[in-house]
Structure formats: structure tokens, C-alpha cells
Design brief:
Helix content is about 5%, strand content about 55%. By secondary structure, the chain is mainly beta. The chain is globular. A hairpin with a 6-residue loop joins strand 40 (about 700-710) and strand 41 (about 715-725). The chain has four helices and 41 strands. The longest helix has 13 residues, at about 5-20. The chain starts with 5 loop residues before the first helix and ends with a strand.
Length: about 725
């Protein structure tokens, strides 16, 4: 052997593994039956993908368990045929329930990543696990990572079948489900394989270890043999619903309240790349309940949007600001003081006007009630791409009061304008954000602006982020989320707006053992700091944490932590109990740990604890979770949080308990029964929510939802209700 050729061979092999891959797509005129059995002749003639490559916990070489994918299309569908080879048929299937993010990536599964505009800024995800559970979502880019919004729901078809050391998948994705430009014949494409038996991920096109497998910056290319089919005229999908129920408020000792509602959602393809969503009298009663959280801060908590009307292309409206400073937060629409307000109608058009320009326009009208004014919410945005992956984004939000009740505390209108530039380099290592926002309110107000800047770097070993913000005291966002702006003055019982500066930094270093005998996938330190300053530069509060994280090859995980927090309370403030904490300076420390057991096992769970000082006292925090999984049909989880806050005698010490039980039973891939039991001493409430769902046809569901609320101390019932709902996709 000529050893001088070895470096050249290795170099050529490296270039082959790292080059952007391509798959040719041809039109067919034969029928494909979606049954998970790849017996159609077209699959023998179709081009198959090159060998899949390792992505996690290493990103070199070819995957041990290989995957083969073939694709085809006709005038109505994009077809996918997949063969997932393996060494045995012992699968990890954590659920049969659809649209479960953690459960999909924690199961043996395969997924398709599509970027029809090849912009590397937004796309689609269609996945199936080895039990046949579907998982679809919209992919968007934030910073230098790609994320899935799993709450998006649409119509597509898939089936699986099991063979000898292999399992098969067939998919049919309707073109009406996708948003694309029929003149673009090169789409971004990747495939992601989860092999949880061996705890690794692989992908068709190479994705670096430091990025997640769905990263749109590292897609290959799907090459069409001709232009994709154009959207047909009159491409309209209708989703009407009927809902009826009965409820009773036992606290008010009122009679039973019977209800009957009819509503309609509609999707109209204005073009293959632009979609119009309409809703009349929407009903969101079947949305999953939020997981309750104990709150030991002065500020409100953030809960994500789950209502379907607001989800498609939602990143056009929600990607502005930071994770805790948002000029638009759709959950503000249809809620007042935590209570639902009827939405009369809504219309939203969103999508691509061109390869580089995305737009979104939304208008929603809420109804008047006895104590709340009717409101109109208008939101518009655009995103113009510059270079390969950078964008200039703009947003306008207008809340307009359309009636006048006796309650005149809310201003007639509130408007917010935002302009942001988002830079992302081709490799995904560097990203930056620069933004300016302005709110407009009645009267002559100063300090209505918000400024933000962030720089991020991410490679295989290092992740670091530095950001700064300036929030004016009158940067008012009635349809947004700015939790630190309103401060409650307990002595005078008023809310006071205080502007602030926010500075934060994150540093992560990962040691990646290359020794095959190592028990770690990675381990390393994490340093997180955040400082809030008053407008005069004095300290408001700060957080500094030092963590060390271990990720084991057997999917166990361990984190050790030390945290210091400082608070200079500007007013007497309620934190715990009914006695306000005196204003002034507080500094306190805590140490803790968190440990997770392998979630693939029959019995799994996690345990964490923190102990240290807390304002002028001490706090012990314990969180425990245990899970019993009967693969693949049953998942039963107990969750318990305990806070023991011990304070001086002039304040209220307290012990706060949060108990949750979740039961998820999958009778099949189309029939599910989910029950939540939550006991929260901070909210003085026991809640039971039980939901049965039967998806009798794609996107057509029958629901039965039962809800009860009790007082914990004597189990006296507060209220109960049952709802039956039918939706049908036309």
C-alpha cells in the first residue's frame, strides 16, 4: 500500500462527508398507497439518499444504523419512503400521541426537514416515531439556532411497518399544507434520525455537533425535475366546529350554565407561498392546560401560546425583543385579568411575497362584556432577507378600544413600532441582533422607547452570549410582555412604572471526551449573569450563577450549581405571604443540584434541591419527578415542588406545595386520554382537567373535556364543567 496516498484519501473522504448533498426529485404518474409497505415499483426506480452521517454525540463518520430515503411527487402530494435499518427490533417508543416534542426526540424516529424557499430562516418539520406517532411543526431561527413550534397542526399522512431489523415509513404531504414558490426548483432538505436505543442522532446532510439536527443552515438540496405544482385556485380548507357543555359555579351557588357554540376556521391559499387564515367565534377550550409554577418573584410569569389560529408563521410576529421582553404576545388577546374574553373574529395573512420577503398582517376583534371593553387588535410585520441568512424585520401593533364601558382605566389605544436587524453568518457560529422599539400612547409621555443588542458565538466547545437592553419607563405594550416594568408599591397600593437597563452574559464550555470508554457525552462549566440597573445607573437586582453539567452516555444527567442574587427593592413588595418585604438591599446565596435518570427506562425521573439564604431569611427548594412508562401506550408522571421559606417574625414564613399528576393513555395513534391533577397551595386550588380526543379523520377531532376546581383545605368544590366538541376538516 502507498501510505503517501492516505492523507489524500482522508481529505477526499472528509470533503465528501462535509459537502452539501443533493437528492433528485422526479414526478410520477402512478398511484402510491400510504401503508408503510414500500412495494410500489416507483420506489425501486427513485434515487436514494447517500449514507447518513453521525451528528450526536459525535459528528464524524457514518452512522452505525443506516437510513435510506427516496422521494417522489405528483400534482397533489410530496411522497417520502424511508427504510430505517437497525441491529435489533427493540424500539424506544415513548408515546403514540402526536405532536409531543420531547417524546418524539426521545423515541426512535425519523423526520423530514424542508426549507421550500431555501432561505435558511424558516421551514417545516414532519416526523414519525417507530410507533407511528406523527409530529409536525414550523421551524424558525432565533440567534444561531433553529427551533420547532410543535403547536402548529396541519393535514398530512404517514404509516409505518416493521421488518426484520428494519422499520419503514411512508409519508404523503399535500402541497396545500406547504408554503412555497412554484418558481423555486431547489429546496433546502435534510433528514433527522433518532436512534435512542444507542442514544445518538444522525442526519443525511452533515450538521455540526454544536447545533441541533434541524438547523436550517446545514440543509442539503432537493432538486426538482420541473417547477413544483402551483396552488390550485379555490384551494380552501374549512374547519367548522360544534361545541356544547354545562358548567356550574358552586362558589356563587348559581344554576347550571348551558352553552352551545358554533364557529369556523378557514385556510385560503392566496398563492402557494401566501396563506389567509380566518376565524369566526373561535373556541379554544380544548387547548392543553398550562403547567402551574410557583412564583417567588415580583413579576408575572410567561406561558407560551397554544391556540392554533395564532401559530402559522408566528415567528413573523413573536421574534422581536427578548425571551422576556416582547412587543407582541398573542396570549394578551382574548384574556382580561386572567379570564377569557370572547373573540368575535380574526383574519391573518402570512407568508412569502418573494424569495427574500416575508409578510404578516393580522386583525382580531374581541367582544364587549359587562366589565371589559371590546377591543380591536391589528398587527403587521415584514422580514426582508439580506445576504445568506440575515434579515431586517419590522413590526407594528395597534390595540384600539372600540366600545366604552364604565371601566375607563384602560387607555383608548396603545401602539408599538419595532425595527430589528438580525445577523447570522453562513456557518451559524456568529449571530447578532440590534433593535429599536417605540410605543405610542395617549398624552405626552417621555421614555417610550426600548433598545436591544445581542452578540452570540457558538462552536463545538464554546457557547457565549452578551446582550444589553434599555427599557423606558413608558415603553407600554398592552399586547406585549415586559414583566419588570410595572412594580407594585405595597405601602401605597399602586403600580409604578420604572424603566431599567438589563445586561446579561452566558458562557458555556463543553469538554467532549474522544475516548470511547468514557461514560460522558460531554461535561463542562456554565456561567450565567444578569444585572438590572435603574435609569440612574444604580443597582436594581442581579443574578450570578456558576453551574457544572454532566451528560452521561446512558442518558443520565447531573448539574451542580451555586447562585447569588441581589435585590434593591424600590418599594415594599409582596414576595411570600401577606406581609410585604421592606424596601431596601438584599443579597442571598444558594447551592443546589439536579439529577435525571435515563428517561428510556420503565421507571425514570429527576430530583433537584437548592438551599440558601432568601432575602432576610432562608429557603429550601425541592423538586422531584417520577415517571412510569408502559411503552408505548401509557405514561404516568408525578411531579412535586416544595418551597420552605423561613423569615424573621415580622414577615410571613410559608411552606408552598405544588403537586401534579399527569396520566397519558394512547389507545392508538388516533385516540388519546389525558388527565391533569394539579394542587397549588400558592393559588389555594386543586384543579382536575381530563381530556379525551379521537382523531377520526386527519385534522378532524371529537373531544370531551371535564374540569373541576376545589379548595385544598376542605375539598369544597369551586366549579366544574364538561364540554363536548366536534371539529371536521373540509
Amino acid at each position: 500500500m502507498n501510505f503517501k496516498l492516505v492523507p489524500i484519501v482522508l481529505l477526499l473522504l472528509s470533503l465528501h462527508l462535509n459537502a452539501q448533498r443533493q437528492l433528485n426529485l422526479k414526478k410520477i404518474d402512478s398511484k402510491i398507497t400510504i401503508d408503510g409497505i414500500l412495494d410500489e415499483a416507483v420506489w425501486l426506480r427513485s434515487e436514494k439518499t447517500a449514507p447518513f452521517l453521525n451528528q450526536w454525540p459525535k459528528d464524524t463518520g457514518e452512522a452505525d444504523s443506516q437510513t435510506e430515503v427516496r422521494m417522489a411527487y405528483d400534482d397533489a402530494f410530496l411522497y417520502v419512503a424511508i427504510s430505517c435499518h437497525e441491529k435489533n427490533n427493540q424500539h424506544v417508543i415513548r408515546t403514540l400521541k402526536r405532536d409531543q416534542d420531547d417524546e418524539h426526540f426521545g423515541s426512535d424516529g425519523i423526520a423530514l426537514v424542508l426549507d421550500p424557499f431555501n432561505q435558511k430562516t424558516n421551514g417545516f418539520f414532519f416526523g414519525v416515531n417507530a410507533g407511528g406517532a406523527q409530529f409536525e411543526g414550523l421551524i424558525s431561527v432565533e440567534g444561531n439556532e433553529s427551533y420547532i413550534n410543535e403547536n402548529w397542526d396541519n393535514k398530512w399522512f404517514s404509516e409505518i411497518s416493521l421488518g426484520d431489523n428494519v422499520w419503514y415509513v411512508e409519508m404523503a404531504i399535500p402541497f396545500r399544507t406547504l408554503r412555497y414558490d412554484s418558481s423555486i426548483t431547489v429546496w433546502g432538505l435534510n433528514f433527522v434520525r433518532n436512534d435512542m436505543k444507542n442514544n445518538y442522532f444522525s442526519s443525511w446532510n452533515r450538521v455540526p455537533l454544536n447545533l441541533n439536527t434541524i438547523n436550517l443552515g446545514y440543509t442539503g438540496e432537493l432538486l426538482w425535475d420541473s417547477n413544483p405544482p402551483k396552488a390550485k385556485k379555490g384551494n380552501i380548507n374549512l374547519l367548522p366546529y360544534l361545541a356544547g357543555g354545562v358548567s356550574k359555579d358552586h362558589e356563587l351557588q348559581s344554576a347550571e350554565d348551558y352553552s352551545f357554540d358554533v364557529g369556523l376556521d378557514a385556510k385560503l391559499a392566496v398563492s402557494s407561498s401566501l396563506n389567509l387564515d380566518l376565524t369566526l367565534n373561535p373556541d379554544f377550550s380544548t387547548v392543553d392546560v398550562d403547567q402551574q409554577i410557583t412564583n417567588l418573584t415580583r413579576f408575572a410569569l410567561f406561558f407560551p401560546e397554544r391556540r392554533g389560529f395564532f401559530l402559522e408563521n408566528s415567528d413573523l410576529f413573536t421574534s422581536f425583543g427578548k425571551e422576556d421582553i416582547n412587543p407582541f404576545f398573542s396570549r394578551r388577546i382574548g384574556l382580561a385579568n386572567g379570564q377569557p374574553i370572547p373573540i368575535q373574529y380574526g383574519a391573518r395573512i402570512s407568508g412569502n411575497l418573494s424569495n427574500k420577503l416575508r409578510v404578516g398582517v393580522m386583525d382580531v376583534q374581541t367582544a364587549k362584556t359587562d366589565n371589559v371593553n371590546a377591543q380591536n387588535y391589528f398587527v403587521s410585520s415584514f422580514s426582508q432577507r439580506f445576504g445568506k441568512r440575515s434579515t431586517m424585520d419590522a413590526l407594528f401593533v395597534n390595540r384600539q378600544r372600540t366600545t366604552q364601558t364604565s371601566d375607563s382605566t384602560q387607555a383608548a389605544y396603545n401602539r408599538v413600532m419595532a425595527l430589528e436587524y438580525n445577523f447570522l453568518d453562513v456557518t451559524g457560529k456568529w449571530s447578532a441582533n440590534l433593535g429599536m422599539h417605540k410605543s405610542i400612547n395617549p398624552g405626552e409621555l417621555d421614555e417610550e422607547s426600548y433598545y436591544t443588542a445581542t452578540v452570540r458565538f457558538n462552536n463545538k466547545n464554546i457557547l457565549t452570549r452578551l446582550s444589553g437592553d434599555r427599557v423606558g419607563e413608558n415603553y407600554i405594550t398592552d399586547v406585549g410582555f415586559v414583566p419588570r416594568l410595572d412594580n407594585f408599591d405595597a405601602e401605597n397600593e399602586v403600580f409604578v412604572k420604572l424603566g431599567y437597563y438589563q445586561l446579561s452574559h452566558l458562557f458555556v464550555y463543553n469538554f467532549l471526551p474522544d475516548n470511547e470508554t468514557s461514560k460522558y457525552n460531554l461535561h463542562g462549566p456554565r456561567v450565567s449573569t444578569r444585572v438590572f440597573l435603574n435609569m440612574d445607573g444604580s443597582l436594581n437586582s442581579s443574578f450570578a450563577g456558576l453551574f457544572y453539567f454532566f451528560d452521561f452516555k446512558n442518558q443520565n444527567a447531573l448539574e451542580l450549581s451555586y447562585v447569588n442574587e441581589k435585590n434593591d427593592l424600590p418599594f415594599d413588595s409582596f414576595i411570600v405571604g401577606n406581609v410585604p418585604f421592606p424596601k431596601g438591599y438584599y443579597s442571598y446565596d444558594r447551592v443546589g443540584f439536579w439529577y435525571r435518570l435515563d428517561p428510556r427506562k420503565l421507571f425514570s425521573g429527576s430530583l433537584g434541591a437548592e438551599y440558601g439564604s432568601f432575602y432576610s431569611g432562608n429557603r429550601l427548594y425541592i423538586e422531584a419527578e417520577t415517571n412510569i412508562r408502559f411503552q408505548p401506550w401509557g405514561n404516568f408522571m408525578l411531579r412535586y415542588n416544595f418551597n420552605d421559606v423561613q423569615l424573621p417574625s415580622n414577615l410571613d414564613s410559608d411552606q408552598l406545595h405544588l403537586f401534579g399528576f399527569t396520566s397519558e393513555i394512547s389507545f392508538s395513534n388516533t385516540m388519546f386520554w389525558t388527565t391533569f391533577l394539579q394542587y397549588n397551595t400558592q393559588q389555594d386550588n386543586i384543579n382536575i382537567n381530563s381530556r379525551f380526543q379521537w382523531r377520526f379523520l386527519p385534522m378532524s377531532d371529537f373531544f370531551v373535556v371535564y374540569t373541576e376546581n376545589y379548595y385544598p383545605e376542605n375539598l369544597a368544590i369551586k366549579n366544574r364543567g364538561i364540554l363536548v366538541k366536534l371539529t371536521y376538516w373540509l
